[in-house]
Amino acid sequence: MLVLTRKPNQSIQIGNDIEITILSVEGEQVKVGIDAPKNVDIHRKEVYLAIKEENSNAASSTVDLGKLISQKYKS
Questions:
Q1: How far apart are CA 20 and CA 18, in angstroms?
Q2: CB atoms within 10 A of CB 18
Q3: 6 pLDDT higher than 70
Q4: pTM of model > 0.85
Q5: How far is 61 from 55, CA to CA, in rounded Å?
Q6: H-type helices in 15-64, by residue range?
């Protein structure tokens, strides 16, 4: 892990397209601004992990859609 020290209004550049700016520091809270292309997904880590888990659950679902459709139109 790379650890950098930044002050308010200082930035970190990631590649050519992503800039992270420290907007303010108030006590233990740091406000961060992220400038990135619209095609780059940006989430808080807990949200990212929840999305990842939901996607994993959906992918491992054992529902047989073909069977459900045929049952619906059988009658």
A1: 7
A2: 14
A3: yes
A4: no
A5: 10
A6: 45-59
Of 60, 56, 36, 38, nearest in space to 48 by CA: 56
- pLDDT single digits (tens) 34-75: 999 999 999 999 999 999 999 988 877 666 777 777 777 875
Task: Tell me the three state secondary structure of residue 43.
Answer: coil
One-letter amino acid of 20: I
DSSP state of 33: E
- b/e map 30-69, b = 16+ CB within 10 Å: eeeeeeeeeeeeeeeeeeeeeeeeeeeeeeeeeeeeeeee
